[in-house]
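REQUEST
  id: r-88c1
  op: predict_structure
  target: DNA-directed RNA polymerase sigma-70 factor
  payload:
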Amino acid sequence: MHDDDQLADRFESFRPHLRNVAYRMLGSHAESEDAVQETWIRLSRSDADEVDNLPAWLTTVISRICLNVLRSRAARPEDPVGVHLPDPVVGQEPSHGPEDEALLTDSVSLALLIVLDTLAPAERVAFVLHDMFHLTFEEIATAIGRTTVATRQLASRARRRVKHAREADSCADFATRRTLVDAFFAAARNGDLDGLVSVLDPDVELRADGGLALASATAAIRGARLVAERAALFRQPGVTVTAVLVNGSPGVLVDRDGVPVSVMGFAVREDRISQVQILLDPERLAAIDFAAFTA
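RESPONSE
  id: r-88c1
  status: 200
  body:
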């Protein structure tokens, strides 16, 4: 096999890892794929024979690329629609077994990604590499161009910010999550406001992202009664709710007359829904392959 082909094969074996790193740093499928492709371009233009540890080299390179993307975002004017949700990872609902608990553990929740979006670029990169991928602070310092001490401080600050998100989405039991989500929609379809409030945390937050196309649907609402009133839209005719996984956790795909109109994720604290995340943006929904869920 030609040396270039061997290098391409080696890179492909690392692609899932690189995609996971980039997604956790960027929360965007398109930008993550761009970062992975840019990493390949840099590898193909380098002297790969001089790279002693290819996985470490690739992780460092994609981290720097993602850091530049995050810095570019920070320099842009504030998002005009006011609420932005990360791109969801949508999967088929599995059969509630022990493997589902592992799936929840290995996935990164939308609630956590929302908080990561609030971090400074270097804080996010340091946190992701250390707390999610277990790189040493010395390795991370090399990737982001900071001292080891400064890198440790960045990760520590990020960890304090992230703590609240983890507390808000602290239920690890898959069956409990699905039961709550099903109860939420059963009450919504019946117009049962009291039933809705009973499954919601008193301080529940609903975040809806309609993008530029549906800016009027974009909203951030807090409080069980207000969120319950918003859920009344699921009583509309022609609406179908399909159980799916959203970032490894029970969520739903909502379609109207066969056309996907939203993906919804949920955070659960103890035995109540603490956050409802709704992606309504038609452009971003169009980029998701829903064929397996709507067939």
